[in-house]
Amino acid sequence: SSFPYLPDRSSAVKDVSQVQVNLILDPVAKKIAQAKSQLIIKYPFYGLLLAGLEESWEKHGEEQTYTCGVLPGFILYNADFFKHLSIKETMGVLVHEACHLGLIHFYRQRGRRHTLWNMACDHAVNLMIKQDTDLPLPGQPLNDPRFTGMSAEKIYNILLAETQKQAETQEQNKSTSPPPSTTSSKQGQQEQPEDKGHADPAAGRIDDHLWPKNLSREQEAQIIRDATDMLLRAATLAKMAGKLPGSWASLIGELLHPQIDWRERLRVFVQNTVKNNYRLTPPNKRHLWRGIYL
User: Fold this and answer.
1) Distance from C-alpha of 246 to C-alpha of 251, rounded to nearest angstrom
2) What's the rounded Cα separation, in Å, for the pair 291 and 137?
3) pLDDT tens digits, residue range 194-217?
4) What b/e sequence results for 119-150 when a residue is b if at least 16 CB atoms lie within 10 Å of its CB, and e otherwise?
5) Helices (H), 5-151
6) Are 59 and 76 in contact (CB under 8 A)?
7) Over the stretch 149-169, which tens digit does the pLDDT of each residue have?
8) Which of 19, 138, 156, 243 has its CA 20 to 30 A from that of 119?
């Protein structure tokens, strides 16, 4: 691309005038800045989630994006993707990224199949955007209405069951049907869409899921603390303005006031109160003079 990209965090510009020059010269950077400003006004919760992120263009370290992507503390843009989007579509993509960060989707994958987990996360996020905003998303975003109100984990379980059932059906069809000819096999391969290995808006993937890899437990814990703090700050300010999205209200409530099962609380209370240590060692020395070991 011919656009003069903003630098990444490793070589961050400290001169404010240089940033202003980039915004003037680069129409994509200007469009993104306008979209973020409009989010702060119209949808402050999402705008505030994005406000604390460092910006990089196309690459950050070994990570690369062909559309847009987020890492903890970072958001990556690809100018060739954004230059074709309207302001509203740009706002929609930015809100999509803010949701991934706020919901800590990278951490919640926990050994699940990467592709299916990405699809489940996108369904959950896009349905939230559709419910809370009037912002469009480019291409054909994944937002199946049957998943409305479901968590990414629940959506994943449904997609996994459907995928396994489809695979079993295909195996049964293969065992009962004659082997395909070479010509038909090649034609079938040509009809299948190519897996580009990255975001493809036409196929429903509007962003690259740049999940962090090889994190220690301490790093994961710190990322979760930072994400939770960021989420609560944004929610508090948005609620004060009367603009906290409805789909997030219950999630924030669970963070602020987690519900504890009364049975679990009673169990802990009883265990800490009732004496249950009847060991005879060491003996009670107060009765040794009587020849009694208690």
Assistant:
1) 9
2) 85
3) 444 455 555 556 677 766 677 788
4) bbbbbbbbbbbbebbebebbeebbbeeebeeb
5) 16-25, 27-42, 44-51, 79-82, 87-102, 105-108, 114-132
6) yes
7) 899 999 999 999 999 999 888
8) 243
Round to whole Å and give the CA distance between 118 and 61: 22
- Please give the Cα distance from 233 to 227 (Å, whole number): 10
Q: Which 3 state secondary structure label does DSSP give 77?
A: strand
One-letter amino acid of 236: T
DSSP tally for the chain: helices H, then strands E = 12, 5
Assigned token pair, 262: 């009364």
Report CA torsion sign: 107, 108, 111, 112.
Answer: negative
Cβ atoms within 10 Å of 152's Cβ, excluding its own = 23
Integer Rg of the chain from CA: 26
